[in-house]
Design goal:
Strand content: over 45%
CATH architecture: Beta Barrel
Signal peptide: 1-26
InterPro entries: Beta-barrel_TonB_sf, MipA
Helix content: 10-25%
Protein name: Outer membrane scaffolding protein for murein synthesis (MipA/OmpV family)
Organism: Simplicispira metamorpha
CATH superfamily: monomeric porin ompg
Shape: globular
Distance between the termini: 46 Å
CATH topology: Porin
Number of strands: 12
Structural class: alpha+beta
Number of domains: 1
CATH class: Mainly Beta
Main location: membrane
Radius of gyration: 20 Å
Length: 285
């Protein structure tokens, strides 16, 4: 497990290093140094709303669930506190899918931005899903996250984020890589095309897709399965944002994802190819 964690950690640092090198080389080639980032306003802004989402009950599950989740964001200076994609609506370069919690921009130079965040990971209650009953719950934990955004141009960006369970509660580590292309359909209406590849270490995959020997044939009928770290999933999707008013925003999205590697081979992956759809409304100031 340790070697898998170290491999994923090195992969995350390698991704950050490559993007930093690309920015430095680009600046040297033009002979210009990017101006310093503008200082954030001393005031604050906020967003409040909700999103209705239909998705698989768990990653790889065949049952579906529909639920309403809050969209909340508060930006004070360089810090953002958010959940449900609220930080992304405040234009803080945060990924709506995995940058909830307390975030701050650590570095900005040229086309490169680095953010850091802390967030609560709710884990998974296996007793709530028939197939998962008898498996150990995935405990709630605290995650630290580093996110890197490289703007190729004003529309196309490359994003990478590394996340690690810092309380040692078997949450493991993940590395998410995304390409995002944004364009304006009409004044006030933006559409983004998204493609991503996601990796996870052994600890994460065994917590969410494994069947431990202590449970196999004892508390569950599932066979023992011990996945190793590597590819977790790939996805493509669309994100839509439409300004109904100066303060009101309509948002929506659709995702199609496919489990990969050992996650796909898991006996828990009844439906490894899945989709999600969401629509929401938020008010921001």
């Amino acid at each position: 497990m340790k070697s898998s964690t170290h491999t994923l950690f090195r992969a995350g640092l390698g991704t950050l290093g490559l993007a930093l090198s690309a920015t430095v080389c680009s600046q040297e080639a033009t002979g210009a140094v990017a101006p310093a980032a503008a200082q954030p306003s001393p005031g604050f802004s906020w967003v409040l709303g909700g999103t209705l989402e239909n998705s698989a009950s768990y990653s790889g599950g065949s049952d579906r669930s529909t639920g309403l989740r809050p969209v909340i964001g508060l930006a004070v200076g360089r810090y953002t506190l958010s959940t449900g994609g609220g930080g992304a609506l405040l234009d803080r370069d945060l990924d709506a899918r995995d940058a909830s919690g307390l975030s701050t921009r650590l570095f900005q130079g040229g086309n490169l931005r680095l953010t850091g965040s802390l967030r609560i990971d709710g884990g998974r209650k296996n007793s709530e899903e028939p197939l998962l009953r008898g498996l150990p719950d995935v405990r709630r934990t605290l995650r630290v996250r580093l996110g890197l955004v490289y703007d190729v141009n004003s529309q196309f960006s490359l994003r990478s984020s590394w996340s690690q369970d810092v309380l040692g509660r078997q949450g493991g580590a993940t590395l998410n890589n995304t390409a995002r292309y944004e364009f304006t359909l009409a004044p006030g209406t933006e559409l983004a095309l998204v493609a991503g590849a996601h990796l996870a270490n052994t600890t994460y995959l065994r917590s969410y897709f494994g069947v431990p020997g202590s449970a196999a044939g004892v508390t569950t009928a599932l066979p023992q399965f011990a996945p190793s770290g590597g590819m977790h999933s790939t996805e493509v999707g669309l994100d839509l944002r439409h300004n109904l008013h100066h303060h009101w925003v309509l948002l929506g999205g659709v995702r199609y994802s496919q489990l990969r590697g050992d996650a796909r081979r898991s006996p828990l992956a009844i439906k490894p190819d899945n989709y999600s759809v969401s629509i929401g409304l938020a008010y921001r100031r």
